[in-house]
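Q: Fold this one first, please.
A: Sequence and structure below.
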Amino acid sequence: MTAFCPVTHQPDFYTVKIQYAPNEQCIESKSLKLYLQSFRGEGKFAEQLASEIAQDIHVQVRPDWVRVVLTQHVRGGIELKAIATVGEM
């Protein structure tokens, strides 16, 4: 997944891990891919992205809980992970 830093306007590359307990609906992989690609032109911090993705999945799919782990590819020797959870695990 790609977005850009709202401060430097440089691209940020992420690995996304989504865990959830489905209720009646499941995430369709092609829709998820297109949704994640929609962030390519947006300037957001990793914490904002993780939270927004978790909230959107919770609203659209209505799982019992959802957890999103966004890992920013190493920059300057630092790996950043932003974790957002919605619902009770």
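Q: Good. Now the second chain.
A: Here it is, same layout.
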Amino acid sequence: MATHPVDDSLNTAPCGFFSFTDDGALVAVNATLADLLGYASGELVGSRVESLLTLASRMFYQTHLFPMIRMQGKAEEIFLSLRSRSGESIPVLLNAVRKEREGGSLNQCALIPVRNRGKYEDELLAAKRMAEEALRNNEELSRARQELELHARALDQKLSRLEQKNQELTRISTILSHDLREPIRKLSMFSSLFTQQDREVLSATGQRSLERIKVQSARMEQLVMALQEFVSLDDTQEPLEDVELGEVVGGARQLVTERAGMGMELHCEPLPMLQGRRRQLMMLFFQLIDNSVKFRRPEVSPRIDIECRLIQHNTYRANTGRYHYTDFARIIFADNGMGFDNRYSDYVFEALKKLDPNSPGQGIGLAICRKVVENHNGSISVESEPGRGTRFTLLLPLRQ
């Protein structure tokens, strides 16, 4: 087998070089390649070209690389793995060219090691993934911006409608405080004067009718006052402040005692300070305590037990699937009163709704309670049983 000596410049070039015949015999190997693979200079000449390659690269050489060189006369930037004397796999990039000479063809190959190729490919893939992720994030950001703009417009429309509603409620409050109450007061006043001055000219039926007018006038005035109180809860100008709930309960208890002319047994656990509207919170506990006194069982002294626990609760109420937990006070308000059928646990919170038309009150107390709790971004529910009392559960956030 003829060999092809390598000239000095190619022998020490900064790249590996070898040439082989079509039968796979190596006829030239430069010192750079021999040193890369751990062989002495000239030791590889006469060996098979496959001996330079790993098993996978041998298969690639036989099925793709050599047929390509024969058909196209060259091969460019081919990735292969060489096998060193110690068995180490060395990745390289190879260029090949086919030369026709007397006595047959000669295939010449030059190569350079690419030991960091895997690292560079990983970095390129990572950079590609980062770019794709940035693109996705940018698209998501664009969609989020569009959604925010839509939500902003919807919120602006809701705020506009809310402002209109508040203006309407202000007008209603004015009507309730003056336009309705004034005629009722005059009706009550004139009926009282008529009763005092002209009672002797009235028949018994007329006197009874006049008494009914007085009673209904008084009831109507109480109803208007209750409605005015309910409407006033939409006043958004009332400032938030730190409120000691224990003081509020004590004040509400005293007020109910003075108005009802009777006391009650009240056991209250320590209650926290929370951020809220003092006047509204006073109304809340006044209505609850007043409700327990009004609907007490005959010949049974009213008893109220108030328990409180601090819990973590989700602040989202309308947005299902979204969560933000913060500190809430869970207050249990239980009495030993008459109770009612638990089927009406939602009905009792509606304004001007009464389970018994002949019962005391205007049917607006629990509606006020729900309104106050909702104004403080909380919730209220009730469980009851006839003859066993009523149990209210209030959830109130400590901070607004």
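Q: Anything worth noting on the second one?
A: The mean pLDDT is 86.
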